[in-house]
Amino acid sequence: MSAPKHAADQPATPRGELALRMVAMPADTNPAGDIFGGWIMSLMDLAAGVSAGTRAQGRVATAAVSNLSFLQPVKVGDIVCVYTEIERIGRTSITLAVEAWVLRRGQEARTRVTAAEFVLVAVDAAGQPRPVPPA
Questions:
Q1: What is the pLDDT of residues 41-93, one digit of tens each?
Q2: How far is CA 38 from CA 3, 6, 29, 42, 114, in A?
């Protein structure tokens, strides 16, 4: 994981709306004491599912994750805040920008730690794609 090279690489505020908040706990760490990237990805997937499911008015399934970037390590005790913003709505799919930010103990500023694009598909009870209802 590498840090952004310039302050301009770090946006001042998150994109979209807060969809999920969780405290990073010791059980989620690797041997070096950093939080596993997979744990962060799972939070991002949950947040994307909540946002897409609300917009799709029902069940959704993750179809793809792209442009995943781990920008900063997450430490035990960090409050992980996941933000989502709908970028596109197709016939059966919803594409979201998903960002994870942390609030670190003793610091007021948020830090963006991970960003990705998620594509979720609206599915019916049988797990088959269904149209996303109009807004």
A1: 999 999 999 999 999 999 999 999 999 999 999 999 999 999 999 999 999 99
A2: 19, 26, 10, 6, 11
For residue 5, pLDDT beyond 60 = no
The fold for domain 15-122 equals: Thiol Ester Dehydrase; Chain A (3.10.129)
Q: Is 132 helix (H, G, I), strand (E, B) or coil?
A: coil
Chain center to CA of 50: 11
* Residue length of the chain: 135
What is the DSSP annotation of 11-69? -SS-SSEEEEEEE--GGGB-TTSBBPHHHHHHHHHHHHHHHHHHHHTS-EEEEEEEEEE
- Tell me the pTM: 0.90
